[in-house]
Write a structure and sequence with these properties.
Layout lengths: L35 H15 L21 H22 L6 H14 L17 H14 L10 H11 L12 H14 L6 H13 L18 H17 L5 H18 L24 H8 L7 H16 L48 H4 L6 H4 L2 E5 L4 E6 L4 E6 L22 E3 L14 E4 L12 E6 L2 E6 L6 E8 L2 E8 L6 E5 L3 E3 L5 E4 L4 E5 L5 E8 L6 E9 L2 E12 L3 E9 L10 E4 L5 E4 L5 E4 L6
Antiparallel strand pairs: 1-2, 2-3, 3-4, 5-10, 6-7, 7-8, 8-9, 9-17, 10-16, 11-16, 12-13, 13-14, 14-17, 15-16, 18-19, 19-20
Length: 632
């Protein structure tokens, strides 16, 4: 069992895990109070927190926690490489005006790690191996600290560094964002006159073109693999590559990358709640505020549509959100989890130092103190001022947010992270759910939340499996999936805090179905559940955050609330309202997630015309019609 995290009130100014944080500056930053000095203080706290875990020669950082599937040797390198990225942004951002111990620490680590006969030597860069990931961070950090570190290394160490990075040349790389690790490392090798293959750099960049789906969205490899890797990898690394390549970079390609990043950021700004929380969807969520990296990349590359004050408000809001919830911990460490340590948000490749990919969030320190992102007054984020609905056809998502409670909700009709057919893989609760939000996390391992399941006689729920998008437009999104060989087609229609799901099922008589609303979780106390009579149920947190589900058509029987412990990244205690009954050809369900005390789930209805058209009435009286065979 994991311990609860400590969450501080939103007006707290002293954060015990960040004792050197300066006072808030509400004249410059009226929404968050954070300035560049706050970012520097957090960076310094993270770097200082790692010191006790450094090996004698500073080439490895062996942090406490579960080892990754790559083993402790690789995990130690990961601790060096990812923290080196943070140190590089801190060093370069200050023009080298940091304590000399920080530069010396990483210079010593480079010497010890690349000594092939030393006790602290790094594992080699070989085909499809984890050191490839870490080598890219080392290359970026070396480039950004060139005047203060690289040029002062002796020739023997520089030769050993390029030899180690040269493991990329001719190597096989995973066909995903990993292609860009090779691009970065070999471009750095080119920049220092070391052996490299221009054809491999070009091929990696060309592969990125294959994955572009429009609207600023890349899939992370073949298939429908949409998540935060779009921002913190597939958009970020081309920006960093262009910085390394300089005049060697193709200007048309750089312009194309920047244009796509600009388009993506016009959407990405909507993925943060008013409290700074990112929407909780996808893998590697233990990287936490790395979600802000593309915001800074846009400013760094002059490829952002956002006003500078909004960029800082969004980024500062995210880091501040985690800081107020015990991140970093009392040791100054980033742990495997979201708030508290919580392994279900991790993957097999996650080791104790993996969370330090969050270092990418500090990219903004490369911008000078005089840059408008640091000097302009904060401006409100979209969530601060108005409700929003965004149709995102590329990933097959529908985003709807409400200013009254500051929540962002993502309706998923397109991202399953499954390999292309005919290959198969198991569902992940971080991809297979109908909904994700900035205020909730899915139950892990898989629970009933935001999922329509056909139940086997022993109660085993069917997975969603492969998602087949049917379209996204306006306030609607649709897809079909095939649980247990039976087609289920779903159209989602959103308004305010509500989503109505129209399911058309091809299931045999007697099949039992179950659908869940949002799982709400808390450390302080178990959410309170209410259910029945009728097909309705809700779960409410002590702070008022409420998840409700109402059967509008086709459902029989009472609702219920499924409670759990230690299965949710947002808190020890969680609860999900559910409906269960015999399958009908058409099921219509209302789900609501709201922290607004004025929001209600009462008064909604649905009827079906003779031609199969579903007439929906939302709780506020708004009406929508969903026709049979309709796709948005």
């Amino acid at each position: 069992m994991t311990a609860p995290h400590v969450s501080l009130p939103d007006d707290a100014t002293f954060l015990p895990n960040l004792p050197d944080l300066p006072p808030p500056d509400h004249s410059l930053s009226p929404l968050t109070g954070w300035t560049r000095a706050h970012w520097e203080a957090v960076a310094d706290r993270l770097l200082d927190g790692l010191s006790p875990y450094a090996s004698p020669g500073f080439a490895q950082y062996r942090l406490p926690g579960r080892a990754s599937h790559s083993g402790e040797w690789s995990d130690g390198l990961e601790g060096f490489a990812r923290s080196f990225l943070l140190a590089a942004f801190r060093i370069a951002g200050s023009g080298g005006r940091v304590g000399p111990a920080l530069i010396e620490r990483y210079a010593a680590g480079l010497a010890a790690g690349t000594d092939p006969y030393g006790e602290e030597r790094w594992p080699p860069v070989t085909d499809r191996a984890q050191p490839m990931v870490e080598a890219a961070s080392v290359a970026i950090a070396l480039h950004e600290t060139r005047p203060w570190l690289w040029v002062h290394l002796n020739d023997a160490v520089r030769d050993r560094v390029t030899t180690w990075l040269g493991g990329f040349v001719g190597a096989e790389v995973n066909d995903s964002n990993w292609r860009l690790f090779q691009v970065i490392a070999e471009e750095f090798l080119a920049s220092v006159g070391a052996p490299h293959r221009r054809a491999e750099i070009d091929a990696g960049l060309a592969r990125l073109e294959d994955w572009y789906r429009g609207g600023g969205w890349y899939t992370d490899g073949d298939g429908r693999k949409f998540d935060y890797y779009n921002g913190w990898a597939l958009h970020l690394y081309p920006v960093l590559w262009a910085r390394i390549a300089g005049p060697r970079a193709d200007t048309d390609l750089v312009a194309r990358h920047r244009s796509r990043l600009r388009e993506f950021l016009s959407v990405h700004q909507h993925f943060f709640g008013a409290d700074g929380a990112p929407v909780h969807q996808g893998r590697s969520l233990t990287y936490r505020f790395a979600t802000t990296a593309p915001l800074w990349a846009g400013a760094l590359a002059d490829a952002t549509p956002l006003p500078p004050g909004r960029t800082r408000r969004l980024a500062s809001g995210a880091v501040r959100h985690f800081a107020r919830r015990g991140v970093p911990d009392e040791r100054g460490l980033l742990t495997l989890g979201w708030y508290r340590p919580f392994l279900p948000v991790t993957q097999r490749y996650s080791g104790p130092a993996s969370p330090y990919w969050a270092s990418k969030a500090f990219l903004g320190l490369l911008l000078p103190e005089s840059h408008p992102v640091w000097t302009a007054p904060e401006e409100p984020a979209p969530i601060d001022t108005a409700d929003t609905v965004l149709a995102l056809p590329g990933p097959g998502w529908l985003l709807h947010s409400t200013a009254a409670d500051g929540l962002v909700r993502l309706v998923n009709h397109g991202s399953d992270r499954l390999p292309p057919p005919p290959a198969t893989a198991e569902d992940s609760p971080h991809y297979a759910r109908f909904g994700y939000s900035s205020g909730t996390a899915p139950e892990t391992p898989a629970g009933p939340d935001n999922h329509l399941a056909l139940l086997a006689p022993d109660g085993t729920p069917s997975p969603r499996g492969r998602i087949h998008p049917l379209g996204v437009d306006g306030r609607r999104a649709a897809s079909w999936h095939e649980p247990l060989g039976h087609r289920v087609e779903t159209v989602s229609v959103v308004r305010g805090p509500w989503e109505v799901r129209v399911h058309r099922l091809d299931a045999p008589p007697g099949t039992v179905v179950r659908e869940g609303g949002w799982a709400v979780a808390d450390d302080a106390a178990p959410p309170v559940g209410e259910s029945g009579p009728g097909s309705r149920a809700l779960a409410r947190r002590v702070d008022g955050l409420t998840s409700a589900i109402v059967g509008l058509h086709g459902w029989s029987g009472d609702g219920a609330v499924v409670s759990a412990r230690d299965t949710n990244a947002y808190g020890l205690h969680s609860a999900t309202p559910v409906l269960e009954g015999s399958a009908a050809p058409v099921l219509v369900t209302l789900v609501m997630l709201s922290g607004d005390p004025c929001a209600s789930h009462a008064g909604a209805s649905a009827t079906i015309d003779d031609d199969g058209t579903v007439d929906i009435c939302f709780p506020d009286g708004t009406r929508e019609r969903v026709r049979r065979e309709e796709t948005p």
